[in-house]
Amino acid sequence: MHARGHHVEAIYSPLRAEDGFVRELTEIGLPAVHVVDMHRAPGPSDLPAFSAIQRIIRGAEPFDVIHGHSSKAGALTRLRFPGRHVPRVYTPHAFRTMDPTLGRGGRLIYGAVETALAWFYTDHLIAVSEDERAHALSIGIPEARMSVVVNGVLAPSPEMAQTVRVSFGIPADAFVYGFIGRLAAQKAPERLLEAFQRVAHSVGNSHLVMVGSGEAEEELRRYIAESGLKERIHLTSAFTGPQAVCAFDLLVMPSRYEAMSYVMLEAAAAARPIIISNVGGAHTAVDHGENGFIVENSDDVSQLAKAMIAATDPERYAELAEAAEARKNRFTLGQMLDRTEEIYRRLAARRRG
């Protein structure tokens, strides 16, 4: 949006932001980037975060639209006093209620909060996939104030691929499985480590590169150290996802829930085959058996490991890679920006009118 000539200011929390994200954000050249501590879990710290966001909104130039992303920032940016206001847009990027491990009580509480915020404080909700839209309707979010705008990405550059491989001493002929994401329960990195332990014995020249950081990092590093495969499993946050993805032969996403993962789309734009659990958005980007595999969303990693092994067969991999190449232009950043800009303009015009 900044490149299209709009005045854009950003607010982010440093508590979960990776260095690469912060670096990329600051390099865009926005007129202002604001830092506000926001903890993932609800708690007393939400009050000072809410106050800080309100001060930023009041102190900046009058905005035409305020857009909150993900549940915490989405809630804190939408809450306001009744009456005339700057339109609020919300993109959940996977509702908490899409988590299959969430109990009935948690599902009711989070669902009630999302529904109340949607009815009383949200001018428009953007779902990033048909799966997320269907889920939103199932928890009572009004259809009239909702649109589907599928995420779009720039095609990652391959210029860092060799650097990534060399930095870990990965041989040129090795088959590299890749993971990109937050090291947290939602992304289920422990599933991938368990699956790779099974795969490593069958695919002797395989390596696993995991790019990310998060609350599970210490536990995962212990697992790697005790796995007997520490020379073939590489966990790092030194590279961003777009820098690393072209170093992979295949992306593996064992997530417990998603809406429409940017990581998945970046891999698709890089023409990389994908193995993904059956989560939101998976069927949008992956045609099972053609440019990848969609496996059971389960802590039993047998099916995941089997798919990882199957993908390394030279003839099978060539077919997967060819299909991935044919699909790499499906999800462009331009298409996403066009649809989002259309929503912004409609809301701004309604407010002015």
From TrEMBL:
Single annotated GO MF: glycosyltransferase activity
Residue span(s) of domain Glycosyltransferase subfamily 4-like N-terminal: 1-152
Pfam families per the UniProt record, alphabetical: Glyco_trans_1_4, Glyco_trans_4_4
UniProt name for this protein: Putative glycosyltransferase protein
Source species, domain of life: Bacteria
Keywords per UniProt: Transferase
Organism of provenance: Sinorhizobium sojae CCBAU 05684
Sections of the chain in a coiled coil: none
Top-level taxonomy: Bacteria, Pseudomonadati, Pseudomonadota, Alphaproteobacteria, Hyphomicrobiales
